[in-house]
Design a protein that fits this description.
Blueprint (H helix, E strand, L loop, with lengths): L11 E9 L2 E8 L28 E3 L6 E3 H6 L2 E7 L6 E7 L3 E6 L6 E10 L6 E5 L4
Antiparallel strand pairs: 1-2, 2-5, 3-4, 5-6, 7-8, 8-9
């Protein structure tokens, strides 16, 4: 399977490049065309003063026809492309999975307390173990 590669960061909704244990993960989500006009990529609305995208916007808009869709609904329809080296068996693979974050409970290594985190989970194609891409915590 060949993944859609990025040509520039303007067409990207999400990108991460991480090391997890002995493994590595490079993951990205590419913007989709407007479902109404199919002419332009959906993106967050731009600030009229600065021309930069509004980071905290709760909707995505088409720059051509100005069609708007909720952020949750749009992001749930996307797929994430992942190139990975499995931290358990060192298998190198590529996979596409839906871009849906799920909440899981894990034990925080510093405080030794349970916490709930958002993750994108996929399985290694060789050893079939779960690999999680956690949302970066602040």
């Amino acid at each position: 399977m060949t993944l859609k590669q990025l040509t520039n960061m303007e067409e990207c909704v999400y990108f991460t490049n991480r090391t997890i244990g002995n493994g590595k993960i490079k993951a990205w989500v590419i913007k989709e065309l407007c479902p109404k006009c199919n002419k332009a990529l959906m993106s967050k609305p731009r600030d009229p003063k600065t021309g930069k995208p509004k980071i905290r916007a709760i909707e995505y808009a088409c720059p051509e026809c100005h069609y708007q869709i909720e952020k949750e609904e749009y992001e749930d329809s996307l797929t994430i492309n992942v190139q990975y080296t499995c931290p358990f068996c060192a298998f190198q693979g590529e996979i596409q999975v839906p871009f849906k974050r799920r909440k899981i409970q894990r034990i925080n290594e510093e405080t030794r307390k349970k916490e709930t985190v958002d993750v994108i989970r996929f399985k290694c194609q060789k050893c079939n173990r779960d690999i999680d891409i956690t949302k970066k915590m602040k």
